[in-house]
Write a structure and sequence with these properties.
This protein is mostly helical and 323 residues long. The chain has a single domain, classed as Orthogonal Bundle (ABC transporter involved in vitamin B12 uptake, BtuC), CATH 1.10.3470.10. 75% of the residues lie in helices and 0% in strands. It has 14 helices and no strands.
Length: 323
């Protein structure tokens, strides 16, 4: 246990270091004291760049990375499937369809988009469970059902884009998982929902650990498997849905981070959930920073960067899977 605390503190320290470098990387170099001034709200010189442009982007990357990583941990536990994550299973696609619909037809309802995206993600999750259920849940059927649902919902998103080609330019950047244009309003909205979602996820570690023992063992322990499975799924969908509503679809964070975390600290969800949250924040922040500087002055959306990184990792896991 002491060893796990050391790992958690180490990854948190790496996150703090990455925040500093992400703030100071770019066309304008900001001295350390001006960074502090920017953080404190004293706008002088280049400190305005820190407060108004870089800091909101960094905070959103941290919040979204943590949310998607924890969502992946919960989904992999409840589905007992190492290949489950919000993007692959179609949950992010369900949330994105609703978010695109709101952006195109009801832009004044932007403040309610996280909850509406959660509804879309929950519907996608329900479809996946319904299609995959056949005398129980099979890991292979879950992935196949997720791919099918993902494809259908992706087609609906494409149809909405074609029917609204005159006002789709802003949505296209969002579809690629772009956080460059997000501001403090988005930070405030995402922070509130993230606080609720992570707060609900942390106490679920016992349920996740018991579910991994198998349904029969859990029932013998007096554990209502179905109720807990629904509860864990709902929290996972909530975290993925609210994140998708703000930044668009960013895949593979929920797949890559839980596996790396298990390699480092093991499968006890009491530690795995918080560790994955910090690691997810770190990886998405590094991916966004990389996309910001690798092709400067152009920027590569973080969703594309994660797709390039996560795709090969997914194939690696698929090759290793025997289910």
């Amino acid at each position: 246990m002491k060893k796990n605390r050391v790992y958690l503190l180490a990854i948190f320290a790496l996150l703090l270091i990455s925040i500093y470098f992400s703030i100071n990387i770019g066309s304008v170099k900001v001295p350390f004291m001006e960074i502090i001034q920017g953080l404190l709200g004293e706008v002088t010189g280049d400190a305005g760049i820190v407060r108004d442009l870089r800091l909101p982007r960094i905070l959103i990357a941290i919040l979204v990375g943590g949310n998607l990583a924890v969502s992946g941990v919960l989904l992999q536990a409840v589905m007992k499937n190492p290949l489950a994550d919000p993007g692959i299973t179609g949950i992010s696609a369900g949330a994105s369809v609703i978010a695109i619909f709101v952006m195109l037809y009801f832009p004044k309802l932007y403040f309610a988009m996280p909850l509406m995206a959660f509804t879309g993600g929950a519907f996608a999750c329900f479809l996946i469970y319904s299609l995959a259920w056949k005398k129980g849940l099979s890991p292979v059927r879950i992935v196949l059902a997720g791919v099918a649902v993902n494809s259908v919902l992706g087609g609906i998103s494409g149809m909405l884009s074609i029917l609204n080609s005159d006002k789709i330019s802003g949505v296209l950047m969002w579809l690629n998982g772009n956080i460059a244009t997000r501001g403090w309003k988005d930070v405030y909205i995402l922070f509130i929902y993230s606080l609720i979602g992570i707060g609900l996820a942390l106490p679920l570690y016992k349920s996740c650990n018991i579910i991994l023992l198998g349904d029969k063992t859990a029932k013998n322990l007096g554990f209502n498997v179905n109720v807990q499975r629904i509860l864990i799924s709902a929290v996972a969908v909530f975290l993925a849905g609210v994140s998708t509503s703000i930044v668009g679809v960013i895949g593979f964070i929920g797949l890559v981070v839980p596996h790396i975390s298990r390699m480092i600290i093991g499968s006890d969800h009491k530690v795995l959930i918080p560790f994955s949250a910090v690691l997810g924040a770190l990886i998405l922040l590094l991916a966004d920073t990389f996309g910001r500087v690798i092709a400067a002055p152009y920027e590569i959306p973080v969703g594309i960067v994660m797709a390039v990184i996560g795709g090969p990792f997914f194939l690696y896991l698929l090759r290793r899977s025997d289910r």
